[in-house]
Amino acid sequence: MPGKRARRHFSQLSEFVRELIIGMKTSGWSTNRVACQVDRSEYAVRNCWEQWTRKCTHAPKTWSGATRKTTRIEDRRIVWQALVDPTVTRSTIRADVGVAIVPLSRHLAEANLKSKRPFHALPLTPEHRQLRLQWC
């Protein structure tokens, strides 16, 4: 199966395979020989070895990202206030939650809520349009 070898490249390495790669590379094996032995791509073996030599660990990378400024309870409270009263302003929500700077748009977007603009004029139904034309 020609596609099977290509798919193995994308599979994550188990803890056991990572330790095997590190052991073989430490004992002086070439990347190609190690890749054939563990039945993985040279790219995966090279990445595992480079990560080991750089950080002295073979654990996969973890991405931390930015820390959240609010707790889950505060997040729920922000969404709840937006649902209960659609006319509430951001400054009112910030003051009520008690957090100085909060990107409220992200919290509302996570809850599938979008900002709403008030109507400048009521939308006309087809019947209203017809009556309006007759009046003119």
Explain what you see.
Residues 6-10 have low confidence and may be disordered. Helix content is 60%, strand content 0%. Helix 2 (15-26) packs antiparallel against helix 3 (31-38), helix 2 (15-26) crosses helix 4 (42-55) and helix 3 (31-38) crosses helix 4 (42-55). It has eight helices and no strands. By secondary structure, the protein is an all-alpha fold. The protein starts with a helix and ends with a helix. It is elongated and about 90 Å long.
Summarize the structure.
The protein is an all-alpha fold and 136 residues long. 60% of the residues lie in helices and 0% in strands.
Keywords:
single chain; 136 residues; mainly alpha; elongated
Q: Topology, please?
A:
Elements: H1 2-10, H2 15-26, H3 31-38, H4 42-55, H5 72-84, H6 90-97, H7 104-110, H8 126-135
Question: What's the end-to-end separation, in Å?
Answer: 76 Å
The residue fraction in helices comes out at 55-70%
Order of helices and strands: HHHHHHHH
User: In terms of structural class, how would the helical and strand content be classed?
Assistant: mainly alpha
Low-confidence residue ranges: 6-10
Shape: elongated
The average pLDDT is 78
Number of helices: 8
